[in-house]
Amino acid sequence: MVVVGGGIAGLAAARAVLARRPDVDVTVLETAPCTGGKLRLGEVAGQPVDLGAEAMLTRRPEAVDLAREVGLGESLVHPLTTAAGIWTRAAVRPLPRTVMGVPSDLAGLRASGIVGRAGVPRARLERGFRHLDVSDDVAVGRLVARRLGREVRDRLVEPLLGGVYAGRSDVLSLQATVPQLVPAVAEHGSLLAAAAALGKASAARDREPVPVFAGINGGVGRLAAATEAAVVAAGGQVRCLMTVREISRGGAGFRLVTGPTVAPEVVEADAVVLATPAGPTARLLRAVAPRAAVDLGTVDYASMAIVTLALQPAETDGRLVGSGFLVPPVDGRVIKAATFSSRKWGWHPPYLLLIRCSVGRYGDEQQLQYDDSELVASALQDLRAAAGVQGGLVDAVVTRWGGALPQYTVGHVDRVRRIHEAVAAVPGLAVCGAAYDGLGLPACISSGVRAATQVTERLGGRETMPA
Questions:
Q1: pTM for the full model?
Q2: pLDDT digit string, tens, across residues 46-90
């Protein structure tokens, strides 16, 4: 069988197939020079850093479990701090308790100063609104602005959703991006009441000894290399610089055309897992699952950049606190978020202040036209204004992620259901990755394992369940 795409979802799929069926020949075909996808390690000032994803949610076990299974268990670490802020109204203000920006405590919101004097009274007006029905999908931002006011949308929901999806809340789906709110709203009838109920449950979990996030000593990017090594050790093959241009049915399985048009290579496979972004997947599925291809073609992506800075750890004016901050687009800054990596993760050296800033979001990508030096200068300017960063610049790396983050727009859940149904109608075919059921590492790994389960049913012989 063949897995097309060597990101963490594709690698997880390949490993899961080999765990279930060690007798199967598994080949991963990756178009890039190396595997990993949005997991990427680099160096700044001689220190290893994550240039892509840098944390794993622990409330879903898939990523942490995979790290342990591929030999990284002793390297798992937890953040020294997760206290985050919002840079708005001329200060970095503590982030109050919210459910992806929907406040669960209006007193905490008022104390934070994130919204103006009229913001909390406007949000409180929702108590007089009619019972809220979210059985039909709706854009998160539009719903919040209507029920709680534009300030809550602009200064809380927008930066939080933008931090995860690099998207705009007025087009992102409630059902896909904040699914926990849907049943809570159905039970309690309003956004505020639903967020308050979810906030109580979250506060109880926060008192548990297991931290919410985990990292890996030396960088989360190590997970991709370790998973690839596990695939190869189990008998799988990984081939990079292999672009799949076409898939068709061939005999009892599939025929994949790879390589340049002047020198094509044909690969035969009993089963195929597509772990590629929505656009390439749509093109590859035109001949074998055209209905899925149509829906996949409507999934748009946002581009962004990560500016990773190494600074001298000079004294600040006391504003460099917590793990970082988010920035509402309404404030017109260049950076959308900043993470104080060397304060968040204990494995960074004390003699450098390492900070990563994100730039760009869907529909607001003008700054991505800047050259690298302009992005570095703009990030430094914003950091000095927001957090009093004074140390001199030692080194910087700009990592551009073109078309990196799928946008879960209104109707996404139904769209994904139709895609899965259309793909499932083709025996031996499965899809996985960030375009479907979640962007985080646990969700991507889970989708890869689920795809592996689907295709092993197609393969002949006896399945071996992993211990």
A1: 0.94
A2: 999 999 999 999 989 999 999 999 999 999 999 999 899 999 999
Q: In what order do the strands lie in the sheet with 56-57?
A: 56-57, 213-216, 76-77
Backbone angles phi, psi at 401, to 5 degrees: -115, 90
Phi then psi for residue 145, to 5 deg, are: -60, -40
User: Tokens 């989360």 identify what position?
Assistant: 220
Q: Give CA torsion, residues 155, 161, 162, 167, to 10 deg.
A: -120
3-state class (DSSP) for residue 43: strand
Residue 339, strand partner residues: 324, 356
Of the CA atoms within 13 Å of residue 133, those in its CB half-sphere come to 3
Q: How, if at all, do strands 237-239 and 253-258 pair? A: unpaired
Strand ranges in 259-360 using DSSP code E only, listed in sequence order: 265-269, 272-274, 301-311, 324-326, 335-339, 353-359
Cβ atoms within 10 Å, residue 372: 14
DSSP 132: P
Instruction: Provide the token pair at 182.
Output: 């849907």
Residue type for position 227 = T
Copy the structure tokens of residue 154: 């602009």
Classify residue 413 as exposed, middle or buried by CB count within 10 Å of its CB (0-12, 13-18, 19+): middle
Structure tokens at 47: 């220190």
User: What average pLDDT does range 197-226 have in this prediction?
Assistant: 86
What's the burial of 243, exposed, middle or buried (CB within 10 Å: 0-12/13-18/19+)? middle
Token output for 398:
């700009």
* Strand (E) or helix (H) holding 50: strand 47-50
The pair phi, psi for residue 25, each rounded to 5°, is: -80, 120
CB 123 within 8 A of CB 152: yes
Which class for 138: exposed (0-12), middle (13-18), buried (19 or more C-beta within 10 A)?
middle
Beginning with the edge strand found earlier in the chain, give each strand of the sheet holding 244-250 in spatial order: 244-250, 253-258, 265-269
Q: What is the pLDDT of residues 288-303, one digit of tens each?
A: 999 999 999 999 999 9
* 3-state SS record for 275-293: CCCHHHHHHHHCCCCHHHH
Task: Name the CA dihedral angle for 111, 115, 121, 127, rounded to a multiple of 10 degrees.
Answer: -90
